[in-house]
Specification:
Layout (H helix, E strand, L loop, with lengths): L1 H9 L4 H16 L24 H10 L2 H14 L3 H7 L7 H9 L10 H7 L5 H12 L5 H13 E2 L2 E2 L7 H5 L12 H12 L4 H5 L5 H6 L7 H15 L2 H8 L15 H8 L4 H15 L5 H4 L8 H16 L8 H10 L5 H4 L18 H33 L1
Antiparallel strand pairs: 1-2
Length: 406
C-alpha cells in the first residue's frame, strides 16, 4: 500500500486508479503521512458517502464533515445532479475560507453548463482574487454565457480585417470579468490585456468578424505590427479552454511541417494541450506523423498525451524512430524518457516485432557510430521486450480472472 501511494504521488495520471485500488485503507494511511495528503482531496476521508439523493444526509455531512469528505461529497452530488452542486455550495459559501472556496469552485469544471452561470457570476465579486479569476475562466469556457458575450464585444473591437488595435486601458468592468490589470515582468500592458480578451472570447465570433472564413483561413491571414504571436497564442488558449477541435486542428497544422513553420505555435507545451481536445484516434495519428517526420527528440511531451496502449501506427512510428536512432549511432540513454514511455504505453503485442532489434550489432556497425552503441541498444530493446511480455502475461491473467468471476 505505501508503494502504491508513492506511485500515485509521483504520477498524477495514475491517481484515480491507484486511489480506487487503495480504498478506505489507503485513505486511512494518507492521514498519517503528509506526503500522501493528496489522496484526501480525492477521497471521502475514509468514510462512506451518503446517497446523493438523500438530501438530509447530504446536508448533514456538508455542514459537519471534514474538508476531504466535503470535497468528495460535492463531487458525488455533481455527478448525480449537476445543478444541485452550486445550490449546495451557496448554502455555506459566505463562511468558507478562500482556499476552500477555490477548491470547491474548481470542482464545478466537471459537468460545467449554463446552469452554473448565476452562481459563477456572483463569484466574480468574490473577495479573493483567485476565486474571481477561476469564476471568470469557467464562464469564458461557456461560449453562450454573458461574460463570454462581453469579452467577445471587447475582443472584436480590438481585432478584425483592418488590423489589431489593443485596448488602451483596463477599466473596472474588464477587471471584474477576470482581466488582470498588471502584466508580468517583460510583458507590455496592452499586449497583456489583448491576450486575455481574445482567449476569453467565444471562438465562434471570429468567423463572422472575418467574413465567414474558417479557422485555418483566419490563421493564414497576415497580421501587421508584430501582433501575430500574441494573437495566435491567445487563440491557442481559447481552443484549449473551450475544447474546440476545429480550432485546435487549424492551430496545430500539419505534423509533418517543421514546428517553427506551423500556422500558430512552435511550443510543444501548447501543442500538447491542443492535442488533448482531439479524439484519441486523431491525436495518435497526428503524433505518429510528427514522429515519422521529426524523430523522437521533441516528441516526449506529445507522446504523453496519447491514449494507452498506443495505437498500432503510433507504436510502429516510435519503434521505427528508435531503430533509426540506433542505426545512426546514438546512445539509447539519450532516449531514456521515450523508452520508459514505450515500456508502459506500447501495445504488448508489439513484443514479437521488437525481437529482431534485441540482437547486438556486430562488427559491421554503421560507420561513424560510437563504439559499443549496438550492445547498449540491444540491452535497451531486450528490457523493452521483457517488460511488454510481462504486461501481456498480466493482462492475460486478469482477463482469465475476470472471466471466472463473471
Amino acid at each position: 500500500m505505501p508503494a502504491l501511494l508513492d506511485a500515485a504521488r509521483a504520477r498524477t495520471d495514475l491517481r484515480p486508479q491507484a486511489l480506487a485500488l487503495a480504498g478506505a485503507r489507503g485513505l486511512w494511511l494518507a492521514r498519517l503521512n503528509p506526503e500522501w495528503r493528496f489522496a484526501l482531496r480525492s477521497g471521502a476521508g475514509g468514510g462512506e458517502l451518503p446517497d446523493p439523493a438523500d438530501t438530509e444526509a447530504v446536508e448533514r455531512l456538508w455542514q459537519e464533515g471534514l474538508f476531504a469528505e466535503r470535497v468528495a461529497l460535492l463531487g458525488a452530488v455533481r455527478a448525480h445532479d449537476p445543478a444541485a452542486a452550486p445550490r449546495l455550495l451557496a448554502t455555506t459559501w459566505a463562511s468558507e475560507r478562500a482556499e476552500d472556496r477555490l477548491m470547491f469552485l474548481d470542482s464545478l469544471r466537471a459537468g460545467l453548463s449554463l446552469g452554473d452561470e448565476p452562481f459563477l457570476e456572483n463569484a466574480l465579486a468574490d473577495r479573493s482574487r483567485n476565486v474571481r479569476a477561476t469564476a471568470a475562466e469557467l464562464l469564458s469556457a461557456l461560449p453562450e454565457s454573458a461574460l463570454a458575450g462581453r469579452m467577445a464585444g471587447r475582443a472584436l473591437a480590438c481585432v478584425g480585417p483592418d488590423g489589431v488595435h489593443p485596448p488602451t486601458e483596463c477599466d473596472t468592468d474588464m477587471q471584474r470579468d477576470g482581466v488582470v490589470k498588471r502584466p508580468p515582468a517583460g510583458r507590455g500592458e496592452r499586449a497583456w490585456w489583448l491576450g486575455q480578451l481574445v482567449e476569453a472570447a467565444p471562438l465562434a465570433c471570429w468567423r463572422e468578424r472575418f467574413g465567414g472564413l474558417d479557422p485555418a483561413a483566419i490563421l493564414a491571414l497576415p497580421v501587421a505590427e508584430g501582433w501575430a504571436e500574441e494573437l495566435h497564442a491567445a487563440w491557442c488558449r481559447a481552443a484549449v479552454r473551450q475544447r474546440d477541435p476545429l480550432w485546435s486542428r487549424a492551430l496545430l497544422g500539419s505534423a509533418a511541417d517543421p514546428p517553427a513553420a506551423g500556422p500558430a505555435t512552435a511550443s510543444l507545451a501548447e501543442r500538447a494541450k491542443l492535442l488533448e481536445t482531439l479524439a484519441e484516434e486523431e491525436r495518435a495519428a497526428w503524433v505518429a506523423e510528427f514522429v515519422r517526420a521529426h524523430g523522437l527528440s521533441e516528441a516526449f511531451q506529445l507522446l504523453a498525451m496519447c491514449a494507452v496502449p498506443w495505437s498500432g501506427p503510433l507504436g510502429r512510428a516510435v519503434v521505427d524512430a528508435l531503430d533509426t536512432a540506433r542505426e545512426a549511432g546514438s546512445y539509447p540513454w539519450s532516449f531514456s524518457g521515450v523508452m520508459g514511455l514505450a515500456e508502459r504505453c506500447l501495445d504488448p503485442a508489439e513484443a514479437a516485432r521488437l525481437e529482431s532489434l534485441t540482437a547486438a550489432a556486430g562488427p559491421d556497425e554503421e560507420p561513424g557510430s560510437s563504439p559499443g552503441t549496438g550492445a547498449y541498444w540491444s540491452e535497451a530493446f531486450q528490457r523493452l521486450v521483457a517488460t511488454l511480455r510481462i504486461r501481456a502475461s498480466m493482462l492475460a491473467e486478469l482477463l482469465t480472472a475476470r472471466a471466472s468471476w463473471a
